[in-house]
Amino acid sequence: MAESFSPIAILGPGLIGGSLALALRQRSPATEIRVWGRGEAALEAVRALGFAAIVDADLAAVVTGAQCVALCTPVETMPELAARITPHLSAHAVVTDAGSVKGSVVADCESILGERFVGAHPIAGSDRNGIAAAAADLYDGATCVLTPTSRTSAAALETARALWQTVGCHLLEMSPESHDAALARTSHLPHAVASALAATVARAIPDWPQLAGGGYRDSTRIALGHPDLWTGILLANRGEISTSIAELTEILQNIRAALESGDANTIRALLAEGCSARQKFDVL
Amino acid sequence: MAESFSPIAILGPGLIGGSLALALRQRSPATEIRVWGRGEAALEAVRALGFAAIVDADLAAVVTGAQCVALCTPVETMPELAARITPHLSAHAVVTDAGSVKGSVVADCESILGERFVGAHPIAGSDRNGIAAAAADLYDGATCVLTPTSRTSAAALETARALWQTVGCHLLEMSPESHDAALARTSHLPHAVASALAATVARAIPDWPQLAGGGYRDSTRIALGHPDLWTGILLANRGEISTSIAELTEILQNIRAALESGDANTIRALLAEGCSARQKFDVL
């Protein structure tokens, strides 16, 4: 039996879309995969991988006849893309996405696409970009948050569930707002902080690279992410991220005050709180 | 020919002292290794490894006759330890340390030990603690900062250089103050930030563990470090760390203001600055 999400049109041949395609080829070989992208070089790389039935820069050619469309482009491009695919969608085609922000994306896409849109965010990624970094196991064991609303059709939700489960995700459903409050703190704030940390070090210490070790390496790794991509993510979730920066800054100011007054107990309590929280995390 | 640092008395059988001993056994088998510690359990673990000629909780028994003493205990314990070993030191015995802070440690230890003390900081570590986490290759390829002063004897500096080079370190010499300004930003600030980040997430998002991915994992990893150990480090370098918190906070406030005004250019410029700084770092 053909999967409900086949043929699937993957829009955006980067790390996220490319990994979705590679995972489907491996785990659902009967699924027809189609890929759309703007850049000829990326499309050529997809063609070379040989798994896609259609690889094209013409949106209509890729979307027409698809049962599922996955938006795997930067979040700020999604509403425009939703509008452009609308005339070509089959009656029951489902549209999902893989964006790191859900509130604004779901509101915009739902207003254009209606009940067929199911917001999704597979929590998996890399500081590398592009199809060259794509991996068939990127989603294996990752949480995928689905954010259906009162408008979402039950059939569309079923198809989105089947798709993200097929590529290895554990599913979790919550509101777009709850998603954005959580991801602001678990992902977007750490990204802003990693960038600010790398800038702080480089501005103050000219010869820092030989004076940094594994702590610097890990705590700043995500600053390697693509600046354009992350500018879009931070702006799309600006309210929650702004609040979370204020929360973090308050803790840092408490540490600073404790350092200046030599208050060991306050410092130890904060370090112990961070340590014990971090111990609860056990990603594979 | 026997090494100038043999016999060596390693004070503190934890990750740092244990790794120093394991590295010496591998790279300088003729060196006589002695280990002092307070806890019987850790000393028993050292004895079981079978590489030490003397393993004892009696400081005099370990230090007497040693040509080199390495202080591998938490930074705040070093001045007291320096005072306690002084009566037992041979005329030409050299004392070095492995503390993450140099200004206060060097000032205190030098005032007690004089020209024989050579401050050192091998920039290597782990979020794990104790002899069980020790590894013969911990220092392999790491930078070791030596902080001799105008008081340090040339012969003591030569012995300290030989020791840290033997275990695989690249040597770098600078003043205790320059070291502390640099490490405040490359190591101590990231630690405080990782702890504050883990606390921010846990306070705001009750079900955060299933909503965090690789970015959270890496950017908060060092929060797993021992709270007591790191309270001592942060307090010992409080002036520079407090300044660096202010530097970081200013950048975060700029990001926050840019988010609130929707100023994409400012955000992109900051993310690009962090990304390009981080690209200069290439640890093994």
Description:
Two copies of one chain form a homodimer. The first copy, chain A, has eleven helices and nine strands. The first copy, chain A, is an alpha/beta fold. In chain A, the strands form two sheets. In chain A, strands 3-2-1-4-5-6 form a six-stranded parallel beta sheet, with helices on both faces. A three-stranded mixed beta sheet of chain A has the order 7-8-9, covered by helices on one side. In chain A, helix 10 crosses helix 11. The mean pLDDT of chain A is 96.
In which range does the helix fraction of chain A lie? 40-55%
The CATH superfamily of the largest domain in chain A bears the name NAD(P)-binding Rossmann-like Domain
Poorly predicted spans of chain A: none
Distance between the termini of chain A: 33 Å
Tell me the CATH topology of the largest domain in chain A.
Rossmann fold
Greatest chain-chain contact? A-B, 92 and 92 residues
Average pLDDT value of chain A?
A: 96
State the helix count of chain A: 11
CATH architecture grouping of the largest domain in chain A: 3-Layer(aba) Sandwich
Structural class of chain A: alpha/beta
Q: Work out the number of β strands of chain A.
A: 9
Rg calculated over all Cα atoms of chain A: 21 Å
The strand order across the widest sheet of chain A is 3-2-1-4-5-6
What is the 3D shape of chain A? elongated
Q: Give a short account of the largest sheet of chain A.
A: 6 strands, parallel
Helices and strands of chain A, in N-to-C order?
EHEHEHEHEHEEEHEHHHHH
Oligomeric form = homodimer
Q: What is the CATH class of the largest domain in chain A? A: Alpha Beta
